[in-house]
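Sample entry was shown:

___
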Amino acid sequence: MKLLTTGVSVLVSIAILVPSTSPKDICVVHWKSIDYNEVARQARMQGDVSLEVSVEPDGKVSEVRVSSSNAHKLLQDEAVKNITEWTFSTGDKRSFDIMYEFRLVMPEVYYGPPASVTIDFPKRVHIESHFKPISRD
């Protein structure tokens, strides 16, 4: 017998930098939780997307480039869309690399939004979601 739980848990661990650090350091001021593209879930797509992100002095993302990926374009686009909605600390123009990891868990069960999102800034964003079954008419 398997124990199944419902609901969504979000675990966030963001590195907070001390104000006295170098102006080139960067920290997250505002982040937006990511969606796992519904079509990608239906097709059971998973994968990693490595991004190069440029941040303007005002803390807004100015450019995002996919540097490498083993994920479908749907997941690449979802990662790019998500990071462009984040806001970072002000300072000099800066850039950093970050990896988005898309994973399906318990593919036979579907509960809706991502089961968990873990942010280990600036290294990675890990998204786990349940499989979205294709509806039959």
In short: The helical segments are 38-42, 73-84. Residues 106 and 123 are 26 Å apart (CA to CA). The chain is about 10% helix and 35% strand. The chain has one domain: 28-130.
